[in-house]
Design goal:
Elements (H helix, E strand, L loop, with lengths): L5 H4 L6 E3 L6 E3 L9 H4 E3 L5 E5 L5 E5 L2 E2 L9 E2 L2 H13 L3 E3 L4 H11 L6 H10 L14 H22 L16 H11 L4 H14 L2 H8 L5 H8 L1 H10 L5 H23 L6 H6 L1
Antiparallel strand pairs: 1-2, 3-8, 4-5, 5-6, 5-7
């Protein structure tokens, strides 16, 4: 059932919390890692997953005959069929045990629906733009020479791309204060971000916080970078140190896969939140 999006969502992970009703568990918008294993897993309590369209045109997720709700108790609804299928796939993929930390799309939907911080589009855009002042790939080291060269070779092409793509100036700096971003650049990015709807902005902000980079996030969403490339570029200094000194066995790979999972989920959420066409029939045929 609903297997066509599974290949995208095998990279996706979520954090959940229990709602007040003991009969169900609902996703939480809290992304903290400090949860016990018991809070992140639960025995599966449903058999079938389906989607339905309400009278308002929004799509709902059904677990057997029960409608999914958000942590705040709202009916869980998404704006289009593509996103509904993707979320339903997350629930359908679960086996005997529900692994809530593997369901990032559901959590992102809850964030958009409940809006726990009560922010509007302008506030989300402002928060995203702040990362430009401390963007990962704008900060450069002065030594060791090997890392200096690596940053130049790997990061400069991405900076060149985004400056040409949006006709802006960003630059880089080894100063602790970072580069001085021109007001015109901020205004251009602000205008571009306003073209996204609230849901897509929620996903984009999630990507930015994972990569600590507005530049890399734009590169990913604009399909200039793959998930693997964006994650690797965001961890360039760490990867350099690991190649030089080695890494803790298994820990490095785990962190890498987790970051890829969250980043992939955010990118998929942005694109699906912007989807307006009916895709269910085509997906089920593929």
């Amino acid at each position: 059932m609903l297997i066509n999006l599974v290949r995208f969502q095998r990279q996706v992970g979520f954090v959940f919390s229990k709602c007040r009703n003991r009969d169900t568990w609902l996703p939480s918008v809290n992304h903290s890692k400090e949860y016990s294993a018991a809070a992140l897993e639960r025995k599966k309590f449903y058999q079938d997953v389906s989607i339905s369209q309400g009278e308002d045109g929004l799509y709902e997720i059904n677990l057997d005959r029960k409608k999914l709700k958000t942590p705040a108790g709202k009916l869980f609804t998404v704006p289009n069929e593509a996103l509904a299928i993707a979320v339903a796939t997350e629930w359908d993929m679960q086996k005997d045990t529900l692994k809530f930390y593997t369901m990032h799309l559901t959590t992102l939907c809850n964030t958009a629906l409940d809006n726990p911080t009560q922010r509007d589009k302008g506030q989300i855009i402002a928060a995203g733009l702040k990362f430009l002042e401390t963007d990962t790939i704008c900060y450069r080291v002065e030594e060791p020479p090997g890392l200096v060269e690596l940053q130049k070779n790997e990061w400069d092409p991405v900076l060149d791309w985004i400056e040409k793509r949006y006709n802006v100036l960003i630059g880089s700096s080894s100063n602790i204060m970072g580069p001085q971003i021109p007001k015109e650049t901020k205004d251009t990015f602000h205008q571009h971000l306003r073209s996204y709807n609230f849901w897509a902005l929620t996903g984009l902000e999630f990507i930015i916080t994972q990569l600590k980079s507005l530049v890399l996030s734009f590169g990913l969403v604009d399909r200039h970078l793959t998930v693997e490339q964006a994650v690797l570029l965001s961890r360039l200094e760490e990867e350099y140190q690991i190649q030089r000194w080695g890494n803790v066995e298994w820990a490095h790979d785990y962190d890498m896969y987790e970051l890829r999972s969250r980043t992939a989920a955010g990118a998929l959420f942005v694109h699906l939140s912007s989807e307006s066409s009916t895709v269910k029939h085509k997906l089920l045929q593929d």
